[in-house]
Every structure is written in structure tokens, then in C-alpha cells.
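Exercise 7b. C-alpha cells:
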């Protein structure tokens, strides 16, 4: 019988690393059981427009499940709403997003990761990077089971059904630059940066990498979506980091706050070398904090050389937003990113909302402070969790002069 696990281990694992030794995550299984979705598919074929939406699983690697998501009988621009974080952000609630995702049918084919050309021949991966929805048809082996699947890193998956065949029945429109790079023998890191700076959004790049459309011909492969998300965030973040390595420090301590989907965020930038700290605090009775009467805390730091303790998808999403902002203003700073997750965030819907919330926060007008002491004193009041708890877990503050006096200024 497996031993009890700590909440901090659950936060680091988020249901996929199996750090507790269990084959499946009991927390996610419990969440899944709350969202049984019953669709009535009248036959073993389905048609509609993919938003576009492609998901690649990691189970069974290197033979993985490739899923083209189709909302049955929904066509054209109407299909966009079912998988478009840029359209969702700020407009739709957690309930809305789960409802959108539950309407999708994932038509599943199993492929070896080294054979992306099969997807290319049928234009399945091309449809996934289209600038507009693409009409598609799937012939299923049997009707799907009513079930909604959750993952802490990718968007929820609706009904799954093994497909005998998938056909793309309209022409994907992908833009000249991406079409050219698909046919070029170019390293992934180089082409991801070029396409992003060329105006392609990050979700298109994730689909392109996941579908095996990028990289040198010899090394192209299908990439599980969760890995592709973190890879694209990491590639772009590292690119921006390298560009600002010799930039001057910001002149003031700046604070930004934001909230979406029952998640609150605080970003504080202070003059200093480029170091980052990410602290997640899950409320008691929240998804990953259900075992404790106290907040469950996870801390990750990145030093001046760009070294971090472990890979975390949420951190990489927030990190990209901050580093892109610093790149745009040509400054470097010491960065604190705090995330508070309320109990009302009852189901994980992916890291996209972290990336988009932090990005939009940084577009707003910051509050300026004379230093970190004053910033923490005022800004940590934004959270329900007391400021003393956040500061007591901060590793980066231990390396900043004056840390011993900071707690004296916070009385909650």
C-alpha cells in the first residue's frame, strides 16, 4: 500500500509524474468522475470543423495517441470557440471552458512518434495549424464512452473514440512563412523564434511542434502536447532571456496584479540581476491542497545563469510572459511571481490561463515603489493567504539584502 504523500509533492507532480508511486492520480480521477458528459452520436461517423485542435498523448510512448478534436455538426467560424485561449481569456468562466471542451470529440489514431509523415499525408497536422477552422470527417471504430479527461497542463479532453479513418475535407490556410518553414531543414529553436516574431501565436507553434511539422527533416517527430507546450515556452523564454542579459536594470520596483479563473497573480520587478522566483500557494480544500488545513506551497527559483531546480509547466508559462515584457522594454530585473489558487478552481484547464493572465497584467500600468519592503507590504494584501506565509517560503529573498527586516513590515 503506497504511503501518504505531501501536498507539496502533489503540486510538483500535478497528476502526471507519478511521484507518489500510484499508476493513476486519485485527485484527477475524482475530478473526472464529477464531469461525466453524455453526447448522443447517432452513428459511427462524425463531421464538423476542427477549431483547429490537435492533442498528442504520451501514454505508450513512442507509440502515442494523436487526437484531432472535432465539435460534431459545428462548422466554420462557430467552431473556434471550442479551442481558442486567446478568445476565451477574460470572457469565459471555468464552467464555460469545461462546457466548450466537453463538446469536442477526439478522433484517435495511434502512431509511432518517428512517423509524422502519415499525419502530413492526410493533412491532419496541417489542419491543426490553420488560421481558421477546417472541415473534417472521422469514421469511428465504435461509439465513444461518455467521459471528460483533465490534465494540469493541457486543456480538458472531451469524448475519445478510436478512428478507422480521418479526412480533412477543406483546405487549411497556414500563411506563407509557416508553409515555407515546414519544407525547410531548420532547427526547432530557430524556427519557433522566427515564427513567433513573424506573428504566429504560441498555440499555433505548439500544434506545429506537436504534429511533427518543425525541425530538421532527420529529427522530426510527433511530440506529446504537454512536452510541446513546455518546449515552446522554454525556447522563447530562453531567447528573450539571452537578449536582455546585458540590458540595464529597471529603475523602480514595479508591481502588477491580476486574476482569472479563480487564480490570483502578483508580479514584482525590482532593480537587480535577472533572477526569478515562482511561488504557488493552493488554498486548503483546493484541487492540490485538499489534504491540509494550511495552504500548500511550492517554490521554484531560477538563478542568474538561467538554472532552475526542476521543470514546471506553470512556471515556464509565466516566465515567458515576464521575459517577453522585459525584452520589449530592454531591461532586466529580479522577478517575483506569486500565484494563489482558490478552492473554486475546481478543475485544471491547462497552463494557457497562466501565460495569458500574466501577459495581460504586464500590459497594464504598474504601481511604483521605492523598494521591495514597501512593495511587499502593500501588494501581498491582494491575496487571502497572509503575506508572512509567502515571505517565509521565499528562497530568493534570503539572498537579497535587508530580508531580515521585511517580515517586520508585514503584520496580517
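Sequence design result:
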Amino acid at each position: 500500500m503506497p504511503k501518504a504523500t505531501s501536498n507539496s509533492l502533489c503540486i510538483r507532480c500535478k497528476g502526471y509524474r507519478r511521484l507518489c508511486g500510484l499508476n493513476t492520480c486519485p485527485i484527477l480521477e475524482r475530478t473526472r468522475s464529477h464531469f461525466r458528459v453524455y453526447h448522443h452520436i447517432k452513428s459511427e461517423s462524425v463531421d464538423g470543423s476542427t477549431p483547429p485542435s490537435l492533442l498528442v498523448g504520451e501514454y505508450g510512448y513512442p507509440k502515442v495517441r494523436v487526437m484531432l478534436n472535432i465539435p460534431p455538426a459545428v462548422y466554420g467560424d462557430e467552431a473556434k470557440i471550442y479551442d481558442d485561449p486567446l478568445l476565451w481569456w477574460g470572457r469565459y468562466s471555468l464552467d464555460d471552458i469545461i462546457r466548450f471542451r466537453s463538446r469536442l470529440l477526439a478522433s484517435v489514431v495511434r502512431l509511432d512518434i518517428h512517423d509524422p509523415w502519415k499525419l502530413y499525408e492526410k493533412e491532419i497536422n496541417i489542419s491543426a495549424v490553420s488560421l481558421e477552422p477546417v472541415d473534417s470527417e472521422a469514421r469511428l471504430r465504435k461509439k465513444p464512452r461518455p467521459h471528460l479527461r483533465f490534465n494540469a497542463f493541457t486543456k480538458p479532453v472531451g469524448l475519445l473514440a478510436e478512428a478507422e479513418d480521418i479526412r480533412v475535407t477543406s483546405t487549411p490556410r497556414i500563411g506563407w512563412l509557416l508553409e515555407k518553414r515546414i519544407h525547410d531543414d531548420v532547427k526547432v529553436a530557430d524556427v519557433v523564434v522566427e515564427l513567433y516574431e513573424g506573428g504566429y501565436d504560441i498555440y499555433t507553434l505548439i500544434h506545429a511542434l506537436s504534429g511533427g511539422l518543425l525541425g530538421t527533416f532527420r529529427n522530426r517527430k510527433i511530440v506529446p502536447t504537454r512536452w510541446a507546450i513546455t518546449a515552446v515556452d522554454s525556447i522563447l523564454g530562453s531567447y528573450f532571456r539571452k537578449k536582455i542579459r546585458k540590458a540595464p536594470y529597471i529603475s523602480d520596483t514595479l508591481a502588477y496584479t491580476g486574476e482569472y479563473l479563480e487564480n490570483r497573480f502578483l508580479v514584482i520587478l525590482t532593480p537587480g540581476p535577472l533572477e526569478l522566483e515562482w511561488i504557488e500557494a493552493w488554498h486548503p480544500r483546493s484541487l492540490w491542497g485538499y489534504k491540509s488545513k494550511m495552504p500548500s506551497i511550492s517554490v521554484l527559483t531560477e538563478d542568474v545563469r538561467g538554472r532552475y531546480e526542476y521543470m514546471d509547466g506553470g512556471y515556464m508559462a509565466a516566465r515567458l510572459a515576464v521575459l517577453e515584457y522585459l525584452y520589449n522594454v530592454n531591461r532586466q530585473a529580479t522577478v517575483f511571481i506569486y500565484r494563489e489558487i482558490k478552492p473554486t478552481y475546481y478543475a485544471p484547464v491547462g497552463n494557457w490561463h497562466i501565460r495569458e493572465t500574466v501577459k495581460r497584467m504586464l500590459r497594464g500600468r504598474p504601481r511604483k515603489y521605492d523598494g521591495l519592503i514597501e512593495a511587499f507590504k502593500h501588494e501581498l494584501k491582494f491575496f487571502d493567504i497572509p503575506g508572512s506565509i509567502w515571505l517565509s517560503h521565499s528562497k530568493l529573498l534570503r539572498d537579497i539584502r535587508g530580508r531580515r527586516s521585511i517580515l517586520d513590515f508585514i503584520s496580517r
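Instructor comment: The CA atoms of residues 57 and 126 lie 18 Å apart. The longest strand covers residues 159-168.
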